[in-house]
């Protein structure tokens, strides 16, 4: 077990002195970064700034108990902590401020995130895991207030899981579960539901988590008393305080942001509780100042009175730290020892300014060189075209007049020049075109790569293994297929675990996990409280630490509680770190064709549009669902798998190769061949489409039925277009609202696959009504597409073209 800060503090006075002065120096460097960063924004060299000034001391104290293997899930003001944890340099701070797209110079996000959003790189260049126990880890920050909290729960719970779960390679992720997850949040953001849901779950689960609340008394301009029921969050949390002998609740520590010795003591105690006893801790840091206000977007003088501003100047953490250092003295062997004189502290202040200025200058030069190199490679080629179009010289003159040039200006010049010389076939234009293609590929990688995995473990690379059937293959309920497949999964992958509402003791509400908790234990097959956002968060955090979690959301309707985390966090992990981090969590849910307003929603279009970056898999039966689980556990990408709730009691033939067979992502399946019309659908609606297709056959219409299986990715080999080429008619059938998933599918087929070229009739979409379905089978019939609806609308296509052969029904 790692030692804690308390156990390592037997040091000499000289070491103590050096430590104090190093902290002061780092605090001053961080403050100067904030000051200079603001100036860089206000002078137009950067777009926006949000800085951590005023929080230097608590972050220095927190960093002292942050060890290799630990994780932080924080918010965007923790620059001092990032400096102290060696996750940030002065140069990388300014590189991020300027949006430098170099991973080497800005490793947190390669210029994709605004300043103050920190991250360490968990992955090697090939997408494989680094040894996370050999480094201090920061999970990539996000801006949505309190959005970092659900992930924090999973990062902390992973430590508890690693105390009992071991697998080949697990030593890269944990040393016997001895790691702490550190969270940081602004005081006003504790009004968000994600904060309370996360803390509640952490107190119930008893995970090693330390949450620091930076309390400056405001949420931007709104004072704390208008944010919550109580102005003092520690008082409000008093009911969460654990009782001796109980394994519930948390420890609450309140400390002033300017009291350096008290801060060291507070975080030392917090570490002891979390690392040694696995108790969650809240450190409420009060009397925080914000010397420059909330951000460069406004001034805090607009909402703080003179008395408050004067207090902030007096109780600035670095001012009070300097006072404490100046006043500190101790007698050792009859000699008075001091920490530093005012002259020595002044020298540190000056050195900090020089260090920051030098780092800023180097970061700016590096950033500018990227642009000047681009200009020097392009401008001569544009100038070579001056004789081919009179407008080119005007474009060049306009470009040269720009005081500050960005990449977009260079590309604008090139594209306008190519537009002006369209139709010209010359060596000079061909040279410029070649250069444009070359630089476009570079910037495409800089700004658009890694939305999905680019590693060898990308889901598309998982080979298809078909289900094997024999004479002894049994016909069983669909839920038995998925249950028995999970049994093989848990046996095969010890790093895999599942958790959700009713997932453990009763084996989920549809018995798809029946007996799994009894067989594999309540660590790997676990029940949770009713708290969807943090069920997802558990999955995100665990997956970031090398586990393979399956986060179960009981019904598809309830996934709306998770949508913020899916959209803002999970879907963007690889993108916002440019391949530096990943979180291959599988979200298991069930839905489609249900009954009643609250159990029959089909928010697929919302998931598709808001969660690009997550694979969306929609199997038509439980065998297909099992195959998708087998596929995704070989992949390093996140996915949502929507099981058909009305399929658990339907009979399916159980494959002999459970746990082995896979369903490829991005591949459709033709489930009925036909020659007159292509019917495209997915999920539970597929069964009704098949019924309709049989009815159409009786009416002389041969329908080809396609199950898309995978919405993201969608039909990678464009097989649907080949079907449309054969039938010349297209119908997309969906239980989502009009303009929902059907619109997405239609756009993919007509625009991406160019299938419009083969159509003899207008494409048709058959979707649900825009309202939620009413209760019972009649509610489904009148709210969502029925077989009757499908037959009549498809028949009408043929009536329109050949009314004699297909006379009107109505």
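Q: What amino acid sequence fits the structure above?
A:
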């Amino acid at each position: 077990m790692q030692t804690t800060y308390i156990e390592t503090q037997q040091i000499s006075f000289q070491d103590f002195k050096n430590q104090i002065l190093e902290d002061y120096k780092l605090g001053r460097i961080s403050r100067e970064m904030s000051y200079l960063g603001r100036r860089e924004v206000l002078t137009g060299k950067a777009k926006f700034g949000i800085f951590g000034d005023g929080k230097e001391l608590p972050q220095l104290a927190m960093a002292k108990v942050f060890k290799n293997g630990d994780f932080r899930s924080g918010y965007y003001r923790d620059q001092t902590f990032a400096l102290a944890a060696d996750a940030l340099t002065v140069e990388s701070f300014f590189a991020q401020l300027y949006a430098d797209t170099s991973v080497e110079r800005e490793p947190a996000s390669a210029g994709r995130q605004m300043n103050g959003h920190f991250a360490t790189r968990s992955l090697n260049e090939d997408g494989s895991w680094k040894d996370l126990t050999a480094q201090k880890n920061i999970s990539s920050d996000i801006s949505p207030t309190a959005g970092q909290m659900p992930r924090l729960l999973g990062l902390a719970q992973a430590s508890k899981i690693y105390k009992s779960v071991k697998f080949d390679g697990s030593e890269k992720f944990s040393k016997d579960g001895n790691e702490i997850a550190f969270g940081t949040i602004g005081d006003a953001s504790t009004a968000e539901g994600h904060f309370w849901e996360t803390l509640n779950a952490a107190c119930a689960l008893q995970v090693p988590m330390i949450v620091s609340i930076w309390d400056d008394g405001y949420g931007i301009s709104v004072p704390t008393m208008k944010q919550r029921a109580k102005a003092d969050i520690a008082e409000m949390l008093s009911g969460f305080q654990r009782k001796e002998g109980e394994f519930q609740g948390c420890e609450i520590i309140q400390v002033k942001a300017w009291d350096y010795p008290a801060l060291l003591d507070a975080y030392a105690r917090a570490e002891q509780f979390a690392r040694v006893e696995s108790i969650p801790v809240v450190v409420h840091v009060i009397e925080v100042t914000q010397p420059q206000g909330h951000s460069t977007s406004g001034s805090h003088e607009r909402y703080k009175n003179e008395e408050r501003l004067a207090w902030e100047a007096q109780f600035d953490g670095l001012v009070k730290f300097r006072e404490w250092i100046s006043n500190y003295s101790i007698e050792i062997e009859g000699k008075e020892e001091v920490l530093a004189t005012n002259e020595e502290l002044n020298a540190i202040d000056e050195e900090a300014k020089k260090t920051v200025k030098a780092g800023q200058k180097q970061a700016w030069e590096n950033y500018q060189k990227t642009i000047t190199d681009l200009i020097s490679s392009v401008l001569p080629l544009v100038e070579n075209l001056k004789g081919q179009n009179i407008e080119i010289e005007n474009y060049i003159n306009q470009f040269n007049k720009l005081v500050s040039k960005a990449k977009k200006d260079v590309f604008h010049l090139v594209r306008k020049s190519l537009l002006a010389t369209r139709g010209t076939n010359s060596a000079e234009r061909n040279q410029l075109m070649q250069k444009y293609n070359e630089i476009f590929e570079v910037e495409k990688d800089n700004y658009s790569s890694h939305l999905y995995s680019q590693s060898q473990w990308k889901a598309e690379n998982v080979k298809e293994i078909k289900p094997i059937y024999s004479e002894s293959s049994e016909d069983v309920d669909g839920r038995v297929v998925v249950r028995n497949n999970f049994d093989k999964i848990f046996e095969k992958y010890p790093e895999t675990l599942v958790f959700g509402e009713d997932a453990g003791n009763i084996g989920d509400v549809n018995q798809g996990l029946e007996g799994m908790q009894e067989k594999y234990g309540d660590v790997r097959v676990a029940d949770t409280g009713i708290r969807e956002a943090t069920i997802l968060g558990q999955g995100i955090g665990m997956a970031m630490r090398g586990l393979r979690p399956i986060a179960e959301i009981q019904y598809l309707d309830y996934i709306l509680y998770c949508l913020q985390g899916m959209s803002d966090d999970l879907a963007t992990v690889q993108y916002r770190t440019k391949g530096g981090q990943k979180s291959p969590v599988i979200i298991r849910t069930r839905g489609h064709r249900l009954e009643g307003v609250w159990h029959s929603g089909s928010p697929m279009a919302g998931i598709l549009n808001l969660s690009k970056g997550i694979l969306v898999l929609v199997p038509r039966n439980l065998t297909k669902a099992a195959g998708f689980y087998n596929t995704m556990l070989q992949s390093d990408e996140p996915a949502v798998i929507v099981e058909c709730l009305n399929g658990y009691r339907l009979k399916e033939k159980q494959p002999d190769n459970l746990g082995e067979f896979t369903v490829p992502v991005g591949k459709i399946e033709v489930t009925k061949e036909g020659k007159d019309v292509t019917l495209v659908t997915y999920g539970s609606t597929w069964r009704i489409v098949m019924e309709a297709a049989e009815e159409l056959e009786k009416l002389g219409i041969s329908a080809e039925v396609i199950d898309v299986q995978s919405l993201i990715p969608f039909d990678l080999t464009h097989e649907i277009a080949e079907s449309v080429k054969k039938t010349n008619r297209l119908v997309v059938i969906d239980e989502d609202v009009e303009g929902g998933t059907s619109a997405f599918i239609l756009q993919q087929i007509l625009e991406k696959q160019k299938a419009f070229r083969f159509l003899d009739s207008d494409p048709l979409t058959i979707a649900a009504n825009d309202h939620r379905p009413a209760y019972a089978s009649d509610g489904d019939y009148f709210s969502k597409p029925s077989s009757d609806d499908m037959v009549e609308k498809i028949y009408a296509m043929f009536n329109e073209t050949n009314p004699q052969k297909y006379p009107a029904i109505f």
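Q: And what stands out in the fold?
A: DSSP finds 26 helices and 24 strands in the chain.
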